[in-house]
Amino acid sequence: MTSRNPITIEVLETLDAIDRRGSFAKAAEELNKATSAISYIVQKLEEQLDIALFQRQGRRSVLTPAGHLILAEGREILSTTHRLANKAKEVATGLETRISIATESILPYSAFFSVLKEFIDEYPTIEIDLCECVLNGGWELLEKGNVDLIVGSPGPVPQQKGYRSIAMPASDLLPVIAAHHPLAKLLRDREQVATTLPKLRRVITHDTSSEGIKRSEGLSSDGKRFYVQTIDQKVHAILAGIGIGHLPQNRIEQYLKTEELIPINLEAKNPTGNFMVWKINHKGKGLRALTTMLAEANWQN
Length: 301
Fold this sequence. Notes:
Blueprint: H1 9-21, H2 24-31, H3 35-49, E1 54-57, E2 60-63, H4 65-93, E3 98-104, H5 109-122, E4 127-133, H6 136-144, E5 149-154, E6 163-171, E7 173-178, H7 184-187, H8 190-196, E8 202-205, E9 225-228, H9 231-239, E10 245-248, H10 249-257, E11 261-263, E12 272-279, H11 285-295
Parallel strand pairs: 3-4, 3-5, 8-9
Antiparallel strand pairs: 1-2, 5-12, 6-12, 7-10, 7-11
Helix pairs in contact: 1-2, 1-4, 2-3, 5-11
């Protein structure tokens, strides 16, 4: 007779909670169990496998190498079971339990979150999981299946990838400098711009892709550079006088009105074409409804 596998979903969830929270007591609080019940689950597994899973380091309970191995593999099992449960619910109702979205950093967030509020009011059982991406980062996340939808990613749309795309209004990117920057006055004069620009540090937002060739847009990246991860960081770096760069006008209106940021006197840059994209084989009703609402949104708000 085959013996029962002692490593159950309950055991893996318990080990995961202890590792994340650092103690049996905090894990018990998260799992809504008594601390004695948590200790019993761990002790029973240790006895059945004849190994130690945790060791004390000060006040923390730390996994042994054997415990690390079980939990590392176990978290993959937990992730698979969660996906299985979600898929079962989706099959039964036609609605996803979660939609993962990557938003391009220059997206007009006011309009975007207005749509999301309307969506979750209509579909309150669907969780939304957001992350921010830059340039090729969104395409990479979509191709790997890490997100269901990318919103505002720059073209061109990759061909023969099984994507469905909707063009979005172009983003107006404005080259700006902080008003208090020592060279700001020179940039008001068109004749001085060409000689002044090489002296200025460029604030550059990292392309969030981890593979392939990274993209760069906006001002030339020649000369000194200062790298940031998000548009919000870029805004504040430029406000601090660290350097110059292109910023989406919809995100800096308040600073333009107060003249904390001033436009650099350059020829207008063609607006960037952006897209909303998802995989054709995604059949969820929630994603279909959300993409329709986003396509109909007023992105000028």
